[in-house]
Each structure stands twice: as C-alpha cells, then as structure tokens.
Automatic annotation (TrEMBL), chain A:
This is Autoinducer 2 import system permease protein LsrD. The complex is composed of two ATP-binding proteins (LsrA), two transmembrane proteins (LsrC and LsrD) and a solute-binding protein (LsrB). It is found in: Cell membrane. Pfam families: BPD_transp_2. It comes from the Bacteria. Part of the ABC transporter complex LsrABCD involved in autoinducer 2 (AI-2) import. Probably responsible for the translocation of the substrate across the membrane. The chain crosses the membrane at residues 21-41, 61-87, 99-122, 128-149, 169-190, 222-244, 301-321. Keywords: Cell inner membrane, Cell membrane, Membrane, Transmembrane, Transmembrane helix, Transport. It is a multi-pass membrane protein.
From TrEMBL, chain B:
Keywords: ATP-binding, Cell membrane, Membrane, Nucleotide-binding, Repeat, Sugar transport, Translocase, Transport. The keyword Lyase does not apply. Pfam families: ABC_tran. This is Sugar ABC transporter ATP-binding protein. InterPro entries: AAA+_ATPase, ABC_carbohydrate_import_ATPase, ABC_transporter-like_ATP-bd, ABC_transporter-like_CS, P-loop_NTPase. SMART domains: AAA. Residues 21-257, 264-511 form the ABC transporter domain. GO terms for molecular function: ATP binding. The keyword Ion transport does not apply.
UniProtKB/TrEMBL annotation, chain D:
It comes from Roseobacter sinensis. CDD domains: TM_PBP1_transp_AraH_like (cd06579). The keyword Transmembrane helix applies. This is ABC transporter permease. The keyword Cell membrane applies.
Length: 327, 515, 306, 326
C-alpha cells in the first residue's frame, strides 16, 4: 500500500494488459484457423470466396455488437431473430403495396426500434427479467409474422433494394461488409470511448451502485434495447435484400448464434466486462470455421460442434490452466 | 445441554480451567492477504469472551475457520483439550460449535422452520424430512428465545428483527456448547438488544461458552467476562474484562492513542441552503419538513426501521415521494432520479457500501469520476487524463491508500472504500451531503477519521445530514437533531437539548426508555 | 482433365427419400465416368442453411448444382451468383423460381400427382366423406403445387370433401401431432392424404395409436421400405411414389448434360441415360415419369429396393 | 387458506380453468375426459422436461441442452434397439436414464468445477450433443420399421385407461413433489439458488448441488428421449429442435423465478399444461395454427408480469401502524 500522495495512475501499461487479454488469445485462434483453412482447401485463399464467406457472419455480427453492450449491462435480448422476421414481414407488406426502397429501409428500422422499445419498456419500466421477457417477445414477434404471412411469402422487392444484401462497394468488398465494419467502429467508440459506454460497464458491474452514483440506469438500458432492436432492423434489411423474399421463418434460431458470438468474443454473460474487438474477432472465427469446413463439404452440424466446443474450451482452458498451476 | 461446569471465576482469571474451545497458531491467507497469522483464542464454559479489533483485523475470518467454512492453512483447534478438525460446516456443528454470522445467512423463500433446520433437519421414514417434528422443535426453540413467530411462515414475510431471531434460533437448533456471535446487535433496535443480552445470560447459565464480537464498547464492558484483541490478523492481547479500561483496549486495537473522538468545531453556520417541505410517501414516511444551512450538521436519529433511510433515498431520487417540495438556494427543484439530485447539488453516501456505494469491479478512478463524467469528458467522449487528474486530487485530499488509481475498488479495505464513495461525491462539488450511518461497522480508528472529515466539510460550508443510530455520535457531532419515529418527525432538538435521554425518549415515543 | 463435380443439394441430410436419390446420383456418376458427386445439404430444412451450403459450393467452383429447395425464392440470389460464376444450376423435386435455375425436373407431372393423391383416397371411400391433407413445410414448392392440382380435380370425385390442409414441416413429431389434431377436430374424417414421406409415416403412426385403423385411411406419397409396416397393419391401403433412385439419377444426368453444353430452353429435349429423355416446357420444367401405386399386392417386392 | 388462494399455482389453475371453459364454449368436445386425457398424454414430455428444468433454474442455472440431450439419448437407445432388438425394455430404460444423466453430469461438472456460467455451458453442449447424433448416424433417420415392436409399444400401452407415457409423467410429478419438499437434497436445491452465500454457511456445497440439479435434469431428459422417439417412432438429429425454450417458457409460466430459489413441481406441471392445452386447442377451435406462436408468446409475457406483481413486496406498513397507534 502506498500513501495517496504517491499513488501511481497505473501499475501495468495498457500494452501489458492487452497482451494478456482474451482478445489476443482469440486472435491466435483466428489466425490458427485461417492458416489451417489455407492448407485444408485450395479454394480458401481466393478474394471472391473470402468475400462470400463474410456473408456468413456480417448480419449476425451487426446485432452481436448491440447485444454485446446489452449483455455487458447485465441484460440479454433473445428476441432479435424474431425482430428480423417481423421487420422483414413489414417491409414485405410495404413492398407489396408499392413502397420504394427508401420507404422500406425506414420501415425496417422503425419496426426494429419499436420492438426494441417494447422489450425495453417491459424490462426497464416493469422491472422484469430480460431473459424471460425476450423469450416471450421472441414468440410474440415471430408469431405476428406468422399471423400476417401464414404459409405465404413476400417477394417482388424493388430491384435497387437488392443492393443492401447483394451489392458490392468496391471490387470484392460487399456493401454488407463495409456496413459491418462501420457499425463495429461505431460500437467500439460508443462502448470504449464515451460516457455512455462507461455507464454501461458500471451498470453491468453493479446496477444498484450505478443508480446510487447518479446514472440513469433505466434510461441507459432502454437505449440499449432500442439499439439492439435497431440493429435487428438493419440486419433485417440486409438479410431480406440478400434473400430477395420474406417468410416468417426467416433467421430462425439466430438468437443463440448471436449470443454465442458475443460470449465467444469474451463478453461476460453475467455482465460487466467485454470488448467490441473481441466480438469482431469472434465473428471472424465463427465465419472462418463455418466457411472453411463448408469448403470441405462438412455438414453444418459438425461446424456447430466445433463452435460449441470452442465456446466451452476457450473459457475452460484458462481456468484449467490456472487450476493446474495452483496444483 | 446439561453441563455441570462451574469454573471458579471469583479470581477474574481462568488459569487452571481447561478451556472448552481453544485455538492456537491458526493462520489463514487469501490471495494477497494474510487474514490471520498465528492467532490463538480460548473460550470458557459459562463465560463470554469478547473479540475486538479494527475492521479487517480478521475476526469474521476466525469465525469462519471455527465453523468449518474456511480451512486454516495451519494451526490447532481443541475442544476439551482434544484436537479436532472442521472440514465442513456440519462437522463443526457436530462438535458443538455454532455461530450467528455477521451477514444474514437465511433464505427468503423458505419457511422459518426450514431456515432453522436447513442442513440438519430431523428425518423420519425412508430418510424423508419429518416436517411435523421440525415444526414442533422450531416452535420450542423460538419460544425459548422469546420469539412468537409461527414456524410455518415464509421468511420473507418477517421484519428485520424477527429475521435476526430466526438466525439466532438456527444457531441454537444445533445442540451447541460454544456459541459465536459476530456483531449480533448491529441490526437490532434498543429493545431487541436488551432481549439479546438476556439470552446471552441464559446461555451462560446453561454453561455454554460464548464468543462475542462487537465494535460497541458499552456492550462489551457490560456483558463480556474476558477479551481478546486482534490487530492486522495477529493477536495483540487478552485478559479479563475487569482488568482493562476502555482507552487501554482502544490502544491495543488501534496501536496508538485515540484521544479525542469527536472533534471540536467552531460554529460557522451560513445561509439557508436546503428547504424540504411536507415530503410524503404512501407507505414509508409522511409530513417531513425541515431546513438546512451551510456549514451545519443535521443529525437524524431514530430506531432501526424508523424510515430515515427511506426518506433520504426519496430525497436523493431513488424512490418517488407522493408529495412535497424541495428548494435549493431558494429555488424549487424536482428530483425524480439520483441524477436529478446530483444535478441540484444533493449527494448521498449510502448505508450499504458494497452494494450501493461502490462498483467493486471498476477501478478507483472510474468510481470517483462516475457522477462527474460530464466534466471530465468532451461532448460525451472520455478524456482519461482528466479523469486521473480529478481522481488523484481527491485521493490525495482524503489520504486514500491503494496500490494505484486503477486498482479495483473491490480490493480495498472497507475504510478506503468509504473514502472512495466520499471522494466520488466531493468531486461533484455538492451543496448538501447526506451520510447514512457513515461509521456503521467501522472501527474506532477509522471512525475518528470520518468524524474529523465531516467536521472539515461543514467548516468548508457544505451542509451535512448525518443519519446515525449511535447516540454518542449523534450527540457529539450534530448541531441540530431531528428524531424520527414510524415514518414521521417525532422531535426537533437544538444543540443544547441533545441528550441521550431525550433522543431515546422521542425515538421510542415515550419518555421512560433508558439506556 | 479433372472430374466434373456435380453437387446434389437436398432439403436436409438424413431423409430416406434423399438418401435414395443420392444413390441414384452415384449410379449416374459411375455410368458417365469422370464425375464426382458431392451430396450435401443443411441439417434442418431452412433456406438460410441451404444458402450457406450453396456459398461453399460456389467457392469450390463445382461444375453443377442440382438442388431440391426449401424455399423457391430465398435461394434465388445465391443460385444466380452461382450461375454468374459459370456454374450450371438445375432444380429437381422441389423447385426454384425460374430465374434461379436453368431448368427444373419434376418427379412427375404436377397434375398427375395431384390427381393420384386424391384418387388413392377416393378409391377406398365408395360413399365419399371428409379428407384432410397433411403437407410438409408451408413453403415447399412441390407439395404446394400438387395440393393446388389436387384441389383442381376435386370436383371430379363426387362426395370427397377436403376439409383442411395442415403442415407438419417434415418433422415427425410435428406431423404426428398435426395428424392427432386432425382426428380430434374432424371426427368424421375418412382419409389423411400426406404428399410427403415424413408426413405419411407419422400419420400412419398416429392413426394406429388412436386405434382408428380401418376407420381412417392414410395415403399419399411414401417409400415402400418405410411404409411396409403401415400397409401390413392396414392403416394404409395404398400409396404412390416415383422411384427416388431414378430421380437422383435423372437429375444428375441432366445437370451433366447442361454443364456440357446442352441448351436448356423451352422445347429442348435432353437425354437422361436409362430414363430416356425429357422435353422442357415453357417454364423450362419437365416431368420424369408417372407415379407408381403400391399396395399389399406388390409392397413386398419393392420394400427392399428403396 | 388465504395463502393457498393467493399462491401462484392457484392463480394458474384458475387461468387454466378459464382457458378450458373458453375453449368449451366453442368446442365442447375438447373438455371430454377422453380428450383431456389425450391432451395430458401429449403434454407429458413437456411436463417431464419442465420438472427437470425447474430444478436447474431453482439453483440459479439454466439448462439449454435438454432438448439436445433428449435427441441424443433417444438416438442412442434407438441404435441400441437396432443392434440388439431383443434387449429387455427395462434395460432400455436404464440406458436412457443413465446416459441422459451422464450428459447432465457433463454440464454439471463444467458448472461446478470450472465455474463456467451455465448458459454458456449448455449453449455449447446443446450444439455438441446434436452434432454427436450426426456423427453417430451421418444424419440418417431411424424410422418406425427399424424399431422393434416392444420398443415402440411402451409409451402407448394403456394401463387403467391411461397410456404409460401419462403414467410416467404422473409418477414423476409425485416423486419430485416428495423429493423437493421432503428430502435434504430437495431443500438444498432451493437453498443453493435462494441464497448461495447463506447455503455455503449452512454447509451446502452450492456447486455440487448445481451438479446434481443438472444430473437430475439430464436423467429426466434422457428418459423423455426414449419416450419421445418410441412414441413418434422416429429418431433423427433435429428431434425436438428448439424445444428447450418451450420448456423454459413452461417453467416461467409456472411461476419458477429465473433468479433462482422460487418454484414448485405443481407450478411446473401447470405451466406445461397451460402451453399443452393451447397447442392442442388451437387446431380444434379452428384458429389458424399460425396464431399459436403469438399466443404462447403473449401468455409468457402476461405470466411474467403477473408473477412479478405477485412478488412485489407490498411495502412496509410503517405508517399504517403509526396511524393505528396514534
Ligand atoms: N474471501 C476472502 N478473500 C480474500 N480476502 C478476504 C476474504 N475474507 C476476508 N478477507 C480479508 O481478510 C481480512 C480480514 O477480514 P475479516 O472479515 O475477518 O475482518 P473483521 O475483523 O471481521 O472486520 P469487520 O470488523 O469489518 O467485520 C480483510 O483484510 C479482508 O479483506
Ligand atoms: N415492518 C417492517 N417490515 C419489513 N421490513 C422492515 C420493517 N421495518 C424495517 N424494515 C427494514 O429494516 C431496514 C431499516 O429500515 P430503514 O432503513 O427505514 O430504517 P432507518 O430508520 O433508516 O434505520 P437505519 O438506517 O438505522 O437502518 C430496512 O431495510 C427496512 O426494509
Ligand atoms: Mg467481520
Ligand atoms: Mg437505514
């Protein structure tokens, strides 16, 4: 213990901290997978193929960034995939009625925001646990899609609507990938460099303490639900555009993949810690694993074993290691 | 239960009597902390031994070692001179050692009887729990300690005091020979404390050995026969209560003389700054109104549960009042959230440091700047250098002790955590600071520091509200006192009227209660 | 010269019908020589799963993709990209919207199948009565087309009253529950028509469990190997199917031919080995052969084949 | 009496009564004893799984791998049945329960020994278990005609008017009612989740209690796995896909608190029945099945809101007391 006159700001430099972090471990995994893939398949190191591979994760990752903030704050949203379905259905109905591309985008984003607001009110307004609220809204939102669409499908989106999910900005760089990168940057800044981000961490570590420190906990959480809804709306636009059609079963089961991506990215599922960089790397890891194994025509389910095992082992290994060292 | 141990205590020493329970050479380390180092302790049948020491001296750790919750790294525990080991809490119970722990360790959703017998319920056929036997025995134990609680009620339906009775009943449900009480009176009201003293006498008569841990010197001198003092995890003294004086005991604990507990202050009371009028709440309090001036310390006294904390939390925007107004510097303000309160210059140092005061997993500097982020940032973007600057300024001012400013607050000692909470609020440059039980559970050395600091704040023109259940503190520190009873103001006392008698009388609603 | 690689993409891996089709594809590959078959598909019947599979196939630069689609529209953009990269794309069994493939091979003519499934039911209900359809997913193109056709021929069968269509999503448990629901909601039901191999089996099981053999006849499209028990117990009087081995074989032959330059345009005739040849209609679709009806008289002969 | 009336379970029972009455107005045949028995039988697997899930949730964990466990165990017993059709059914039961318990133990050990958050563990094992089915079978289905008759007969054999499947659910409800209220382990489940800190002080090893909760949930899932595949006479990778969330929903509707420590077997039973009745009633009362999802979603949300209302502390009666005194 040092007397305060001499309290140093930091004991370890940020550099030292980073080298020992989760993100560096994950980065190693990512590089390992990349190298392994290059050896395993002759088709892997090809710009177009790598570009195609990004579609396996960009939409999920966009939601994962918002979800990361939500999980860091100690909440969760399992209704994200259902929001995609509802937003996509709304866009489909609008397209049917002749609404143009700008209008469709506006509708997709608004439905996302509305759904997020609905979750947010239930959780922050009524003080309900988010995991059960969003299990409920997950059925509710997708259920509304089913009521509207039943066994029908919406097609016939305006031709220029296809750009969001199928367009390329420059050479092999797809619009979705650029959007993914921009969103990642925005969320990284928001979480790590703003007052809002600091509040998110504080709430996740101790919501009562944050409230007693003058942070508007309810408002911050509500905004996080809004953001998650909004990102689901963005993903709905991209996915709908990529598929060119809407069915109520669209994006089925994505919520758990998105949560997996966030947790794999080193975000503490119990709240309080995590980084956007981690989620970005996790997105690449998941994308690389599925794509690499896909090139070998390994069925998707085997890839999910790999992801599941990776999820458990990247958390378990450091703990096993420290247990082993402690004897 | 029928122990016929009659040690000769007329000599005031216990030499020659085999202790019922004795410890020697016990050491316990946590990562980075040596909580106990080579300590010893002796408990005698039919006697109360007081264990005293500053916060973090290792008292509770010792309790956990004695009840099988922690395993000591080294050392020797004997019962009746025979060495024993407590690998699990059950094994300690079997050996006849039971404890009322410092924290409440009960289950809200279980019934009173289940709470009492969890882990050692009477079983009947097929090893199934025999609920009727459990009920009967629970009722017996409860009535033996003067509690009229139905063992079938769910625990969450009970008030604090009754919960505490259940905790005591739980400790007694084991056929114990040694009973450990870790700060048992910290959460009790005056009348309940008296009942507890009677219970202790009864246990003494039954020949049980009692270990009594407390920071309150009056009660130690009242009920203990022997004392043991720990400091920084080491034993620094032991002996008979009758052979030690209060200053001597304090010196042993703190390692230096603590001469003057309540600092003398010159009165420099300024203009009116806070006016609260007719504050109401549907269930917790009603008709609260008062004024506060710069440089003034306004004490709030009352029995536990009088609604002081609830009112302060409403004033701070945690809960919504159903009516009433607040004026700061003559201008009315609306407080709907703590953020509003901070913006209007009212800050609140809560009772529950760990849960409400600090954010344990965030570093010191982030805790300090949390409410002041708008000032250390530009357009919502953080500026770390500014944050460190602010945190360093207040850490220096409060003489905070820590390895670095990015140490997590959770790793600090209780006293230093309290400093972080105060630093956090001073950094917002408040007008009114509310301190809720600022010295609760704090040892005598740190207490003096907090009192000094409070006086200094008032001298600098800050208006201070101090909620406290400790009469000496209220008497020693307050310029004026408001006594609350059952959610309403029972009395307003000026400096000259503040005596222990008037305080207790108004708080209890009668005139006759005496300490 | 490298092998030509033809990918047979199915709705989901593990379904008996598609396993048999894959067998046929291998047979065609052996016959053609220099052809490698990649049998693949998602694990559940989703369009997103198929798109990931298609992306992986594009990346490998396969020569042709023959797909039985989970969703006629959602896979179109991915398949278009495949065609842009020079990959031959045909659909078979369950089709893809026209601009997402070069041709589509129906196992049989839609009208014929629609008529057959109604006739199978009507044959055993001389006095008419209520029938219900239990289909696969609500998005399955082929099933939907057959059901449309079946509704079209209904007036020809006097007294046969179609009460409802429900969807079992090609999941056994869901189909079983839907069949139970049908029996509960329509106490006078005389037949359940399931134009899907998963649905017909589950319905048969549900009818057997409800003790309604003889009361309710389960019919539709099924595989002889899987249906043998139902025919034996009497829950199913008769059912129909085309040969899935032939279907896989034909799809492979067509994909190979088009990848080798055969033109897929309305009116074109394309050969498909031992199955003869097909002529494309103006939607570039063609039908392979007629469905064949199985009952107690011939089931034993076929149950060991597919 | 007042406590019973006010309890969550009683509220839910009333809700179910109202629901049935509502359905009866449109379709009286639904509430005949024989149809209700059929609905109960159809809901039996959900009841079983909900009991297991309830125990896990009580200890502040969650088991997202139950449906995958069910599918894997179901496939394993099916494969055993193919390999050894003569194996007595009692052995099949033993394998199903044992293998399911083993999978549960795997979750439990990771939660206990490595302290990995349960949601992460079971999110991982959920995909791993299903993946293992694929590796075992290459995705091939085991169909009705490959299973032995004895294997398929068990859940549908009728005893005293009810199929064995229903009897097993009833037996589980009784057994676990006793376990949860009358055994040390049962109380430990409540204590470990209600207040883990205090449980440690009471000598309860919280990690080990959670381990046993996962083991129990796994054993139940394994048993249900056998019943499921034999009832529907089919086993494949995607059996009961997505069912884990339905199971959690049943618990939530049944008043089990996701924060641990609150819940009961009757609650889980009623929660499952509520969802089961809705699922069975919709097609009957001629509401399009496409409404089912939205209705159960709305039911979950309403249940959570009501439960939260019931749990809300009524506030201290401090002022009332003062008024009475004054
Ligand atoms: N589980 C633990 N892990 C790490 N350090 C611990 C743990 N428990 C206690 N300590 C440390 O051990 C020391 C002794 O703590 P203990 O709780 O025994 O003090 P105490 O004398 O009971 O204090 P108080 O009067 O405040 O109750 C403190 O420095 C504390 O921070
Ligand atoms: N009748 C009661 N029923 C339930 N809880 C009660 C009751 N009376 C008091 N409590 C609880 O006791 C605690 C103390 O009450 P409160 O904070 O209002 O009193 P106080 O006057 O501020 O006392 P102190 O600050 O000294 O604890 C609170 O947590 C409160 O919830
Ligand atoms: Mg202590
Ligand atoms: Mg208080």
């Amino acid at each position: 213990m040092t007397a305060s006159r001499g309290i140093p700001d930091r004991l370890r430099t940020p550099m030292e901290r980073n080298l020992k972090s989760w993100e560096s471990l994950l980065m190693l995994v990512a590089i390992g997978i990349f190298v392994a893939n290059s050896f395993a398949s002759p088709y892997f190191l090809n710009a177009w193929n790598l570009s195609d591979a990004t579609f396996n994760f960009t939409e999920k990752a966009m939601i994962a960034f918002a979800m990361a903030l939500l999980i860091i704050s100690g909440e969760i949203d399992l209704s994200v995939a259902a929001i995609i379905a509802l937003a996509s259905t709304a866009m489909g109905a609008a397209a049917q009625a002749g609404v143009g591309t700008e209008g469709l985008v506006l509708i997709g984003l608004s439905v996302g925001l509305l759904c997020g607001a609905f979750n947010g009110i239930l959780v922050t307004g009524l003080g309900l646990p988010s995991i059960v609220v969003t299990i409920g809204t997950m059925s509710l939102f997708r259920g509304i899609s089913f009521i509207i669409l039943g066994d029908q499908a919406y097609r016939g989106y305006p031709p220029d609507f296809a750009f969001f999910g199928q367009g390329y900005v420059w050479w092999v760089i797809s619009f979705e990938f650029v959007l993914f990168a921009i969103i990642a940057a925005i969320y990284a800044v928001l979480l790590h460099m703003t007052n809002f981000g600091r509040a998110v961490y504080a709430i996740g570590n101790n919501a009562t303490g944050a409230l007693f420190s003058g942070i508007r906990v309810g408002r911050v959480k509500f905004i996080l639900f809004l953001l998650t809804g909004l990102m689901s709306g963005v993903a709905a636009i991209c996915l709908t555009s990529r598929l060119g059609s809407t069915r109520p079963s669209i994006a089925f089961g994505w919520e758990l993949e998105i949560v997996t991506m966030v947790v794999l990215g080193g975000v503490n599922i119990l709240g309080g810690s995590g980084s956007i960089l981690g989620v970005v790397i996790a997105a690449f890891v998941m994308g690389l694993v599925t794509f690499g194994l896909g090139l070998l025509n390994v069925p998707g389910i085997v890839m999910s074993i790999v992801i599941g095992a990776l999820l458990i082992s990247v958390i378990a290994l450091p703990r096993l290691w420290s247990m082993w060292r402690a004897g | 239960m029928q122990l016929e141990l009659r040690a000769d205590v007329s000599t005031q020493t216990a030499s020659g009597v085999t202790p019922l329970l004795s410890l020697s050479g016990v050491t316990k380390t946590f990562p980075g902390v040596r909580a106990l180092s080579d300590v010893s302790l002796k408990l005698y049948p039919g006697k109360v031994t007081a264990l005293v020491g500053e916060n973090g001296a290792g008292k509770s750790t010792l309790v956990k070692v004695l009840t099988g919750i922690y395993q000591p790294d080294d050392g020797d525990i004997r019962i009746d001179g025979q060495p024993v080991r407590f690998p699990t809490p059950q094994s300690a119970e079997h050996a006849g050692v039971t404890a009322i722990h410092q924290e409440t360790v009960l289950f809200d959703e279980l019934s009173v009887a289940e709470n009492i017998f969890l882990g050692h319920a009477p079983t009947g056929r097929f090893g199934l729990i025999d609920s009727s036997a459990m009920m009967t025995r629970a009722r017996e134990i409860l009535s033996s300690i003067g509690g009229a609680i139905d063992p079938g009620t769910t625990l969450k339906e009970l008030g604090t005091a009754n919960k505490h009775l259940v905790a005591i009943a739980r400790a007694l449900s084991v056929d114990a020979r040694a009973v450990i009480m870790d700060e048992p009176t910290a959460a009790l009201s005056h009348a309940e404390i008296e009942e507890l003293y009677e219970l202790v006498e009864e246990l003494k008569r039954q020949g049980k050995a009692i270990l009594f841990i407390s920071h309150k010197f009056d009660e130690i001198f009242r009920i203990a026969d022997f004392y043991t003092v720990y400091r920084d995890g080491q034993m620094v003294g032991e002996g008979a209560m009758s052979e030690v004086s209060e200053p001597e005991l304090v010196k042993m604990m703190v390692g230096r003389d603590v001469s003057q507990i309540f600092p003398k202050r010159d009165h420099n009371i300024g203009a009116e700054i806070l006016v609260v009028d007719d504050y109401q709440h549907p269930t917790e309090f009603a008709d609260i109104g008062f004024t506060l001036r710069r440089g003034e310390i306004l004490g709030f006294y009352g029995l536990v549960g009088a609604g002081r904390s609830e009112f302060m939390q409403a004033l701070f925007g945690i809960t919504r009042p159903s009516g009433g107004t607040v004026k700061i510097d003559g201008a009315p303000v609306t407080i709907r959230s703590p953020a509003d309160a901070v913006a209007s210059g009212i800050v609140y140092v809560p009772e529950d440091r760990g849960r409400q005061g600090t954010i344990g997993a965030l570093p010191i500097f982030q805790n300090v700047t949390l409410p002041s982020l708008t000032r250390t940032s530009r357009k919502g973007f953080l500026k770390l250098a500014e944050e460190f600057k602010l945190a360093r300024a207040y850490a220096t001012r409060l003489d905070l002790r820590a390895a670095s400013l990015d140490t997590d607050v959770g790793n600090l000692s209780g006293g230093n955590q309290q400093k972080v909470v105060i630093a956090k609020w001073l950094a917002t440059q408040p007008k009114v600071i509310v301190l809720d039980e600022p010295t609760k559970g704090i040892d005598i050395g740190s207490k003096a520091a907090v009192h000094d600091f409070m006086a200094e704040l008032a001298a600098q023109g800050l208006a201070v509200i101090m909620v406290s259940s400790e009469i000496p503190e209220i008497v020693g520190m307050s310029d004026r006192v408001i006594v609350m009873r059952e959610g309403r103001i029972a009395a307003r006392l000026d400096r000259d009227d503040i005596t222990p008698e008037t305080l207790v009388g108004h708080a209890a609603g009668l005139g006759e209660t005496r300490r | 010269q490298d092998d030509m690689r033809i990918a047979l993409v199915v709705k989901a891996l593990g379904i008996g019908f598609f396993e048999a089709a894959a067998e046929g594809a291998e047979e065609a590959a052996k016959e053609l020589g220099n052809v490698e078959i990649i049998y693949t598909g998602p694990t559940d019947t989703t369009a997103e799963g198929q798109i990931e599979v298609i992306n992986a196939l594009i990346a490998q630069g396969v020569d042709a993709i023959a797909i039985s689609a989970n969703d006629p529209d959602a896979v179109v953009p991915a398949l278009k990209r495949a065609m842009d990269r020079g990959i031959t794309v045909i659909s078979w069994d369950s089709g893809v919207a026209e601009d997402g493939r070069q041709m589509h091979l129906n196992p049989s003519s839609t009208e014929l199948i629609g008529n057959t499934i109604i006739k199978l039911a009507a044959d055993h209900m001389p006095d008419g009565g209520d029938v219900a359809i239990l289909s696969a997913t609500a998005t399955a193109t082929n099933q939907n087309a057959w059901i449309e056709a079946a509704k079209g021929v209904l007036p020809n069968y006097e007294g046969v009253n179609l009460v409802t269509t429900v969807y079992g999503d090609d999941l056994s448990d869901k189909s079983y529950r839907e069949a139970q629901g049908l029996m509960a909601s329509y106490p006078d039901l005389k037949a359940i028509i399931a134009p899907t191999t998963v649905g017909i089996l589950a319905s048969c099981q549900a009818v057997t469990d409800a003790g309604k053999i003889g009361e309710i006849n389960v019919t539709g499209l099924g595989l002889p190997s899987e249906m043998a028990g139902c025919v034996e117990s009497g829950a199913t009087k008769s059912f129909a199917i085309w040969n899935p081995i032939d279907l896989g074989y034909s799809a492979t032959m067509l994909a190979h031919a088009i990848a080798n330059g055969a033109e897929a345009a309305p009116g074109a005739e394309i050969a498909m080995g031992r199955m003869g040849s097909v002529t494309l209609d103006d939607t570039n679709s063609a039908a392979m052969s007629d469905p064949f009806t199985y009952d107690s008289s011939n089931i034993d002969q076929f149950k060991s084949i597919f | 009496m007042k406590r019973i009336l006010a309890s969550r379970e009683a509220l839910l029972l009333v809700a179910i009564g109202l629901l049935l009455a509502l359905i009866a107005t449109r379709f009286p045949g639904f509430v005949t004893p024989s149809n209700l028995a059929a609905v109960f039988n159809d809901t039996a697997p959900l009841i079983l799984l909900a009991i297991g899930q309830m125990i896990v949730i009580l200890t502040r964990c969650i088991d997202l791998s139950v449906a995958a466990n069910l599918a894997l165990t179901g496939m394993v017993v099916s494969l055993i049945n193919i390999a050894a059709p003569g194996l007595p059914i009692i052995a099949i039961f033993a394998v199903a329960i044992g293998f399911g318990a083993l999978l549960g133990m795997f979750n439990g050990i990771l939660v206990w020994k490595l302290a990995i958050p349960p949601i992460v563990v079971t999110l991982g094992t959920m995909t791993i278990f299903r993946g293992i089915i694929f590796l075992l079978t290459e995705g091939k289905w085991v169909n009705s005609h490959e299973m032995s008759d004895a294997f398929k007969a068990v859940p549908r054999t009728v005893i005293l008017g009810l199929p064995v499947l229903s009897w097993i659910a009833i037996a589980a409800v009784i057994l676990f009612s006793i376990v949860m209220t009358r055994t040390t382990l049962g109380r430990a489940f409540y204590a470990a989740g209600g207040n883990p800190h205090a449980a440690t002080y009471a000598g309860i090893n919280v990690g080990r209690t959670q381990f046993w909760a996962f083991t129990t949930s796994g054993a139940i899932a394994g048993l249900t796995g056998y019943l499921w595949v034999s009832r529907f006479a089919v086993a494949y990778v995607d059996v009961a896909g997505g069912f884990e969330l339905t199971v959690v929903a049943a618990c939530v509707i049944g008043g089990v608190s996701i924060m641990g420590g609150i819940g009961s077997v009757p609650g889980a039973l009623l929660g499952a029945l509520f969802l089961g009745i809705i699922a069975n009633a919709l097609p009957v009362v001629n509401i399009s099945p496409f409404w089912q999802m939205a209705i159960s979603g709305a039911a979950i949300i309403i249940a959570v809101v009501l439960n939260a209302q019931a749990n809300r502390s009524p506030g201290r009666i401090i002022l009332k007391r003062a008024e009475r005194a004054g």
